[in-house]
Amino acid sequence: MGDLEGYRGQSLTALEAAGVSIGDFLSLEVDGQSVMGTLAPRYAHDDDSHIVIKLKSGYNVGLSVAKVTKVSRLAKGERPSFTSSNPKTRGDLLEVAILGTGGTIASRVEYRTGAVQPAISSEDLYSLIPELSDIARIRTEVILTVASEDLEPEHWGKMAEKVAERVAEGARGVVVTTGTDVMGYTSAALAFALQGVPVPVFVVGSQRSSDRPSSDAYLNLIGAVTLAVAAEFAGVYLVMHADSSDELLAIHRATRVRKNHASARDAFESIGIPPEGYWTRKGPELISKSLPPRARAEKFVPKPLFDPNVALVKFYPSMPTSLLEAQLASGLKGLIIEGTGLGHVNRKNIAVIQRFIAGGGLAFMTSQCIWGRVDLNVYANGRDLLQAGVVPLEDMLAETALVKLMWTISNTASAKEAEGLMRKNLAGEVTERSFPSGQTA
Amino acid sequence: MGDLEGYRGQSLTALEAAGVSIGDFLSLEVDGQSVMGTLAPRYAHDDDSHIVIKLKSGYNVGLSVAKVTKVSRLAKGERPSFTSSNPKTRGDLLEVAILGTGGTIASRVEYRTGAVQPAISSEDLYSLIPELSDIARIRTEVILTVASEDLEPEHWGKMAEKVAERVAEGARGVVVTTGTDVMGYTSAALAFALQGVPVPVFVVGSQRSSDRPSSDAYLNLIGAVTLAVAAEFAGVYLVMHADSSDELLAIHRATRVRKNHASARDAFESIGIPPEGYWTRKGPELISKSLPPRARAEKFVPKPLFDPNVALVKFYPSMPTSLLEAQLASGLKGLIIEGTGLGHVNRKNIAVIQRFIAGGGLAFMTSQCIWGRVDLNVYANGRDLLQAGVVPLEDMLAETALVKLMWTISNTASAKEAEGLMRKNLAGEVTERSFPSGQTA
Prior knowledge:
The structure is a homodimer. By secondary structure, the first copy, chain A, is of the alpha/beta class. The first copy, chain A, has eleven helices and 19 strands. In chain A, the strands form four sheets. Chain A has an eight-stranded mixed beta sheet with strand order 7-6-8-9-10-11-14-15, with helices on both faces. In chain A, strands 4-3-2-1-5 form a five-stranded antiparallel beta sheet. Chain A has a four-stranded parallel beta sheet with strand order 16-17-18-19, with helices on both faces. In chain A, α5 links the parallel β8 and β9. The radius of gyration of chain A is 25 Å and the shape is elongated. Chains A and B meet through β16, α7 and α10 of A and β16, α7 and α10 of B.
């Protein structure tokens, strides 16, 4: 009987019946289609219903044994050397910390149907992507198991603290795996909390779960871990597919990136700037000439506090005053408005905002256009908002502005100081004007 | 003394001193730069401080006489024939109705500094764009003077009624000029209120005011009026610059277009589909093969009612339950949620939404990603939202969904009927799936 390490129950029975071993090149019929690849070992101990095939593309795909109608061996193979018998011993390699926080990436969802199980362990990771053991000594920890949309500011704080811990312990770089839904908010939060971080920190996720040949998890993780070892720069970045090919990742500035597609693998886009660089299997190609270099780790202290008493309100035509009034009455300290165009709301709400500011609240203007820059000097409603004390945030993304305000309020002693910090460019969240002021209207 | 029709005060004095006449080709020095073009007549009766020059590009530019340091005549010219002495008499041409509703386009802002004056008259229009008199018999009416962001649902109703009036009176086509800030919402509103309109209706605006050589007002209006005469199709469209050149307009489907840049002339983008077509001075080039043909006007009845008791809420990480609770308690009938990714909100708000629906409210899900399609079947929070009664709106834009819900509630007798209509594709607001369901996650 062949080597079928890790297989149990139904899947073991099916593979035994076909007389195949780990390492064999197989053809499996599933739903009338043939899936061809190398039979991989299993490291998931609580699943007996999937067969894992390593495709030529490098992806591992988990096939439900119930759907496999035929297993045939196309070629006899050697058991591939994944983790333990790697030519490089782990001690030769630099340590990369992977912090799991939930989301689809590298979770075990591929072995299940139904709800995502946001869990990750070294074994899971190596069984998904054995190549990682050639790149770095991976140290994984699940610090959160939270669906992306359930993340709270305190979770961002925890991520920042854990990153700092790993940095202090000598990690060459850190990879934070997280759900993509709010990944733009999360990467911005880490950029503010980890200002001056002496190593590179890459926030990654996957748009499609790993049980699909089209999953982006594989390349995103390989790229992020490789960059964590090889990059000469420090700072926080979001790394995801740059196009629909499976060969190119974009290295986005953490504060200027947005999820602009609900499902595409290249859903994330840098807004108003190109990505800082790209990554292919040949290595990184940087566009930016001004990324901070790596630095010594001793003195780094994170600032992980975020005040959740901040709201983001997208203005829409006919928005009644009652909406803002209700929110502002609830003890809110700060408000990010996503206005229309150059940064407008309807006239009737200007007085409400003015009262909020007069009472000590902080209000800032961004644009729901996403691209471009607010300018409150062009039209009367804009000038009245300025007069009321609303601070225009140039071309800062609304999502980044929300997170920055949460961070700023926690890291300043007064509203005035917080306003001053909001106007400063702390982590590349605002770009320099690319055209003269007169052209914006 | 030369012909200086319409010039008064300072500007008349300056032109008389230079000994020039309307029609002369001049060079004016302004802020150290030379502006060259033909001296145009004035039709603005309350302004004496601007000189209007027709540039070679076709634009009229209004120059503040206080900034003009030198006026020189490069060539003697004939007074150009603008309105009255046009070779074609107006009676030869078909009638195009232009409805002014406010905003920058074709307003008199170019003759002023400071606040925009949303006013338009036939004289103003012809003085801005004399070519219009070659294209159509223009009938203008200012039906509203409202800044874009101050538009209310009742204003959309008024626009729809006025369009229907003009159609009944025989207009070949209708152009609605409006501010760009909420133009995507406005075009969607007109598309729902004017379903089955037998002529083409073009919603246009300008991103830059007409006093700048770079203004987009000129081409947008020329294009819209030309299309109103020449187009063989009916329906509501948004027409704006397609790129940064000044030669190409895009004809966007009214329900799938969004202002994606705060200031660029090509700020508007069709989302998830190409524009229905393009327009150049050579005429329209249609992409869509399925635009409705023109039809007889007799039977057309608009449906101009919109219920404003509807809110759009963009979800953000950590959104407290108090925010939605306050809104839902205010007598709201319907809620459009702009969720993250495939259409998610945090777990704690699901119960709030469930109570709203249980109490007779209507709740719908869209995505803040803008591109892509919601899918509530992939993750647990999504399935719980479905269970609570939230209706996913496929790839409908959040802005279009808001307007459609306002319209739908006014045009149905029960919440159940309204929900049914929201699920139907009424005006091209939802596209067919472009990929199989399994690929969305």
